[in-house]
Specification:
It is globular, with a radius of gyration of 28 Å. It contains 18 helices and 30 strands. Helix 1 packs across helix 2 and helix 1 (79-91) packs antiparallel against helix 9. It is of the alpha/beta class and 715 residues long. Strand 16 and strand 17 form a beta hairpin. 31% of the residues lie in helices and 21% in strands. It folds into five domains: 3-104, GIY-YIG endonuclease, CATH 3.40.1440.60; 115-332, P-loop containing nucleotide triphosphate hydrolases (Rossmann fold, 3-Layer(aba) Sandwich); 339-385 and 448-602, Rossmann fold; 390-444, no CATH class; 611-710, Alpha-Beta Plaits (2-Layer Sandwich). The strands form seven sheets. Strands 8-9-7-10-11-6-12 form a seven-stranded parallel beta sheet, with helices on both faces. It has a six-stranded parallel beta sheet with strand order 13-25-24-14-23-22, with helices on both faces. The relative contact order is 0.08. The structure holds adenosine-5'-diphosphate (ADP) and zinc ion (2 copies). Residues 402, 404-405, 420, 422-423, 425 line the site of one zinc ion.
């Protein structure tokens, strides 16, 4: 007798078919089993799905094809994992097959059964070897005495359910709390697994080293595995198998790790939970932070979100329970090291009173020189890479526009190119204005490359007093290093550049926000934001939140070593020194900043007091892109399914996206808002069908693609 099984596959061409496909099998297979199935001429990886989950696309039973094979040796994915995938697909309005298959390591799709068998054999050998290293408490590294605040946070964690928001200053020892809770859990429960998420790949090596150092000696080197997009497909499969089989006790990764198969998951940690990179911006646009909280509940795991500047959403959720809060707030306001490692003094430089057009105000420059003289490090950041954002002809007003995008190409001096940061189009800088022939075209504004050049010029006469030699009788010149996406393109470059900073081979570090986040620099005593004002007046309502957290993070890079002399400083060059955001920054006062922002959001009915989704569309013309959205929104009014929902929904008009054209594709968007998450969800689910149908109408002609973004981060 043969069984009919619903099976999820990823078939972009059939993506309207949200549910599983039906196949025949001689054996009954548990939901979660991995199989290979034929589809057309191809053979695809599939997951046997729960029969009750969604009506499978049942074709004529006589024509049903049998599954090709079962991936033997891989245990079925757990019901909790299946539920996570179902939820994510539903919430973010994608097909379940797409989400499920994207959550599995890409190599699993490609290798055949024989290759897989070899892999599993190798894997089993490694796993048993690492278990041989077994639990031996005497292997433990000397553990440090926890601070009173750490102890208190851990006690609360142990005795309460959570979810937890660990609100701890930069350098308050949050990582130590993560290590401690994980250590506790793993010692108590010999099968338990923990997941630790970090926002950026370039922060994983540092954290991985800390976790490896702590857990390697206890549970063997295979106990901690990484998961991020910088790994090779083979490495990713290896980590995935280790997590799935339970051999890996700790999975450390970026947002994709939230979908890792971990049958014994008991703890989830989301470090720097406010970071925008937890939100995916392609495929299913999920928030790994939000899914982490959901997943914890499914798996019966505890979850900690940690940050010095929590997202306003999480902060709002952690208000007192009496006011409706759902998260427990754990507080660690003080830095490790007491007064000597106090948070830096924030100094605002009023640029209205500085020499016109100066980039480094005289007092900031003097302060940097002073640090150099003392043998300490400074860090200057500016959120724009390249030499200058625009090249300009003063005769005819030509600007270096990208021919394919509604954006300027950025001037990169190092290879004398004009490069578009949106579509990648690059050309040599013209010798003269391409419009009028004027040879005198000049850069406007500045990026990190120009900032570095300018700073080198300003510090040319400065000598490092403690580096006197025969060649340099008055000391060597100042060593400036720039770190941004341009200097770190090659694998390993970022690590080696950071190593130079850590080793003290750099006096002034210049870079983008890449250097402002997370790194544990020990010798930096001055951090400067060269020009942060633009975010104060951005049309994006989240811009102040992001600026505040970036500046707090940046300030957190200063004075991490209590052993260094004197007070560390954070400098902000601004034309609006009295702005409340900077006032709050000066006091390192996140709660006040958050309260003000939340009040504004509440008055304006913005998230977290309302719920949003965006539908984005792309076409060759703006008219088509907008026309599609307009038609799809007009189509809902007469449909009875929408009648009960529409009173709770605001559909805004279609508008061009802020960067309207990229690579010759016109982009438009439509905002949907509701005070009720449920109403918004129901509306979107119904609207999906309308959007698909509209695409088949004349209004959909010429449309390239459309996608829904639930809880968008940028509008
Ligand atoms: P955060 O993650 O909050 O920025 P970290 O956990 O990185 O802070 O801690 C900052 C520094 O303080 C690290 O070098 C860490 O090793 C050290 N540290 C943390 N907790 C303690 C402690 N209880 N005693 C001594 N040093 C500690
Ligand atoms: Zn010109
Ligand atoms: Zn372009």
């Amino acid at each position: 007798m043969s069984h009919l099984l619903p099976i999820l596959v990823h078939t972009p061409a059939h993506s309207q078919l949200a549910g599983p496909l039906t196949y025949r099998s001689e054996l009954p297979l548990t939901a979660g089993t991995l199989v290979r199935v034929p589809l057309g001429q191809r053979e695809l990886l599939g997951v046997v799905w729960r029969a009750d989950a969604a009506p499978a696309n049942t074709l004529d039973p006589g024509k049903l094809r049998p599954i090709s094979s079962v991936l033997d040796g891989i245990e079925p994915l757990t019901p909790a994992w299946q539920q996570l995938v179902s939820f994510a697909a539903q919430y973010y309005q994608r097909s379940t097959g797409e989400v499920a298959l994207a959550a599995l390591p890409p190599q699993l799709r490609e290798i055949n059964t024989a290759q897989l068998a070899r892999r599993l054999k190798k894997h089993a050998k490694v796993a048993s070897a690492s278990q041989g290293g077994g639990l031996d408490p005497s292997n433990a590294t000397v553990s440090i005495a926890l601070s009173a605040e750490q102890t208190c946070a851990i006690d609360q964690f142990d005795t309460q359910e959570g979810p937890f928001l660990l609100f701890g200053a930069t350098g308050s020892g949050k990582t130590e709390v993560y290590l401690h809770t994980a250590e506790h859990l793993l010692a108590r429960d010999p099968a338990a697994q923990a997941m630790v998420m970090v926002p950026e790949i370039n922060l994983t090596p540092q954290l991985e080293a800390r976790f490896q150092a702590r857990f390697g000696p206890l549970y063997g080197d295979g106990a901690v595995v990484a998961m991020h997009s910088g790994m090779t497909p083979a490495q990713r499969l290896k980590s995935w198998l280790a997590a799935h089989s339970g051999a890996a006790r700790i999975v450390l990764g970026t947002r994709m790790a939230v979908f890792a198969s971990m049958p014994q998951l008991k703890l989830i940690i989301v470090d720097e939970e406010h970071d925008p990179s937890y939100k995916s911006h392609e495929g299913a646009r999920y928030s790994a932070r939000d899914l982490a909280v959901y997943r914890a509940r499914l798996d019966g795991a505890k979850v900690i979100l940690g940050s010095a500047t929590p997202s306003l959403e999480s902060w709002h959720h952690s208000r007192p329970a009496a006011e409706g809060g759902r998260y427990e707030r754990l507080l660690m306001p003080s830095r490790i090291g007491g007064d000597a490692a106090a948070l830096p003094l924030v100094r605002r430089v009023d640029m209205n009173h500085q020499p016109k057009k100066c980039v480094f105000s005289p007092p900031l420059l003097a302060a940097i020189e002073q640090r150099v003289a003392r043998g300490e490090q400074s860090m200057v950041f500016l959120n724009r890479r390249g030499y200058a954002p625009v090249l300009h002809c003063s005769d005819c007003d030509w600007k270096s526009e990208c021919p394919h995008c509604s954006a300027y190409r950025v001037f990169h001096k190092i290879d004398r190119t004009l490069r578009c940061h949106h579509c990648g189009f690059a050309q040599q800088v013209p010798r003269a204005c391409p419009a009028c022939g004027n040879p005198d075209i000049a850069p406007i504004g500045r990026g990190t490359e120009r900032l570095e050049e300018h700073l080198a010029e300003l510090l040319r006469h400065v000598r490092r007093p403690n580096s006197v030699s025969e060649q340099w009788p008055e000391g060597e010149p100042v060593r400036i290093l720039r770190i941004d996406a341009d200097t770190t393109k090659l694998k390993g470059e970022l690590e080696s550049q950071l190593a130079r900073v850590h080793a003290g081979d750099v006096d002034v570090l210049v870079g983008t926000q890449m250097i402002a986040k997370g790194h544990d620099f020990r010798r930096i005593t001055l951090v400067a934001a060269a020009s942060p004002d633009s975010a104060l007046f951005s049309s994006d309502f989240r811009a102040p939140e992001r600026l505040f957290s970036l500046l707090m993070q940046a300030a957190g890079r200063a004075g991490r070593d209590a052993g260094l002399s004197g007070q560390s400083e954070m400098w902000v060059q601004t034309f609006h020194p009295k702005h409340p955001l900077f006032e709050a920054l000066k006091r390192h006062d996140y709660p006040t900043f958050a309260q003000t922002q939340l009040k504004e959001r509440e008055q304006a009915a913005m998230p977290p007091f309302s719920f949003q989704a965006l539908v984005r569309s792309e076409a060759r013309t703006q008219e088509v892109a907008q026309g599609f959205l307009t038609a799809a929104s007009a189509a809902v009014a007469p449909l009875p399914a929408f009648a009960p929902l529409l009173p709770h929904i605001t559909l805004y008009p279609a508008v061009p996206m802020s960067i309207q054209r990229v690579a010759n594709v016109e982009r438009a968007q439509m905002l949907i808002e509701s005070p009720s998450r449920t109403a918004l969800q129901r509306f979107l689910t119904e609207w999906q069908a309308v959007l698909h149908a509209t695409r088949q109408q004349p209004e959909g002609k010429g449309l390239i693609r459309w996608a829904i973004d639930v809880d968008p981060l940028a509008i």
